[in-house]
Design brief:
This protein is of the alpha+beta class and 163 residues long. Helices cover 23% and strands 30% of the residues.
C-alpha cells in the first residue's frame, strides 16, 4: 500500500487571535521546537465549527472564543514517508483541514494546557506572519496558505478593540 492509496483525515485547525492580533501557538509535548496551532479530527455527526470549538477546549482548555473567519476550501498536507502507516493509526496519508480564525475573548488565565490529555508543553502569542517559519516542514505549505487566506484577520481583530 502506498500513501496515494490512503485517504486524508478530516480535521479542523484554529488560529486563535488575541486583542493585539497575535496568534496563539503551542509546542507539541515531546518535540522541542515543534510549534503548531490547535487542530484535531472531526467526530462523526459533528460539524467543522463544532469540532473547532471542541478542539479548542480539549487542547488549550478554553471556550472563550468567537469564530471570525474560515477557509473557503479544505487545505491538505501529506505526511512524510517515514510516518505513513504509523501516524493516525496508519489509516491516513495526511490531513484535510478546515481552518477557523477565532478571536480570543478571555484572559490568559482562561488558557490551560494542563488538560486531561495534554498536547502542548509550552505556548505563547506570536506574530501571525511568522508562523510558517516556526512550523515543522511538512506542514509549512498549509501554514503559508493560512497566512495568506487570513492576512486581514489580525487587523480586523485589533480594530474590534478600538471600535
Amino acid at each position: 500500500m502506498t500513501a496515494e492509496d490512503l485517504p486524508y483525515r478530516p480535521c479542523v485547525g484554529i488560529a486563535l487571535f488575541n486583542d493585539e492580533g497575535q496568534v496563539w501557538i503551542g509546542n507539541r509535548i515531546g518535540f522541542e521546537g515543534a510549534w503548531q496551532l490547535p487542530q484535531g479530527g472531526i467526530d462523526d455527526g459533528e460539524t467543522a465549527e463544532q469540532a473547532a470549538l471542541r478542539e479548542l477546549s480539549e487542547e488549550i482548555g478554553t471556550d472563550k472564543a468567537e469564530i471570525v473567519a474560515e477557509t473557503p476550501d479544505w487545505l491538505t498536507y501529506d505526511l512524510p514517508d517515514h510516518l505513513i502507516g504509523k501516524a493516525f493509526g496508519g489509516k491516513y496519508r495526511g490531513q484535510k483541514q478546515k481552518w477557523f480564525a477565532m478571536h480570543f475573548t478571555g484572559k490568559e488565565k482562561h488558557i490551560k494546557i494542563d488538560v486531561p490529555h495534554p498536547e502542548f508543553d509550552a505556548w505563547r502569542w506570536t506574530d501571525f506572519g511568522t508562523l510558517p517559519d516556526l512550523i515543522v516542514p511538512f506542514k509549512r505549505p498549509v501554514y503559508l496558505q493560512l497566512v495568506e487566506i487570513f492576512r486581514d484577520v489580525p487587523q480586523r481583530i485589533r480594530n474590534l478593540g478600538t471600535a
